[in-house]
Amino acid sequence: MNGQKALKQVTLIKTGSTIPEIRQQFGDFEDWFSAGLGVSGVLQVDVFRNQPLPSLEDTSAVVITGSAAMVSHREDWSEKTAQWLKQAVEAGMPVLGVCYGHQLLTHALGGKVGPNPNGRQIGTVLTKSLDSARSDPLLGHLPMQYSSQTSHSESVLELPPGAVRLATSPLDDNFAIRFSEKAWGVQYHPEFSGPVMSKYINYRSDALREEGLDPDQLLSKVTETEQALSVLKKFGELVNLP
Fold first, then answer.
1. In angstroms, how far is CA 214 from the centroid of its own chain?
2. pTM of the model
3. Is residue 241 predicted with pLDDT exceeding 80?
4. What pLDDT score does 119 carry?
5. Which residues contact 56 (CB under 8 A, 6 or more apart)?
6. pLDDT at residue 41, as a whole number
7. Is residue 227 a contact partner of residue 188, using CB atoms and an 8 Å limit?
8. Is the dihedral of CA 180, 182, 183, 184 positive or negative?
9. What's the number of CA atoms in the CB half-sphere (13 Å) around residue 232?
10. Which residues pair with 172 in a beta bridge?
11. What is the predicted pLDDT for the residue at 5?
């Protein structure tokens, strides 16, 4: 290395993949996150395939994706990732968890995650910022109400010690959380576009009908969610991603 210190890397912890037909048309999670963060490249770690996590000394920031898996199932790869994330947060690492990542951070830091008692939440939903978000470095630029894309059946049921609730949605009280000075979680998907959201609803239409939901009504409400997407860009700015 000629005496030069190697650049630290942004770690994208991938906890699953999107639906194959979506991947063929729109790419996968890593593509959407890289575009939203404004990053040309990241260190992608497919933890759900048991790829090893890097040393914290070689990491500058962490983003955790969504997944079709359930945090409450306590799969080995998920529990190992939770232990690593706890160390990252305690070390002051900038961390952003999305959907499964939001829940996994909650679990890692001592909160409670489980099936949402209000049922599945999917589609474009109204997100309400709380007063606690007004001065937040990551979410403070957002209006008090904005739209976001969501698809989940488990939720954060109890906050970890010291965590602050930042936003709610119609079916979820803990829709966005600040875990520490530099660690956040959002239950929604800032990386989802309108077409991707519509594909998810269509893919799960049979299951939605069985649960008493109307896929056609959900599809009619899908819009682009640029304000939610801005959370990724803001995170990139906060941690000075290259």
1. 25
2. 0.95
3. no
4. 95
5. 87, 88, 91, 93
6. 66
7. no
8. positive
9. 26
10. 169
11. 37
List pLDDT tens digits, range 225-240. 999 999 999 999 988 7
- Backbone CA torsion sign across 50, 149, 173, 139: positive
Q: Which amino acid is at 79?
A: E
Tokens in use for 152? 């989940």
Contact 69, 75 (CB under 8 A): yes
Domains of the chain: 9-238 (3.40.50.880)
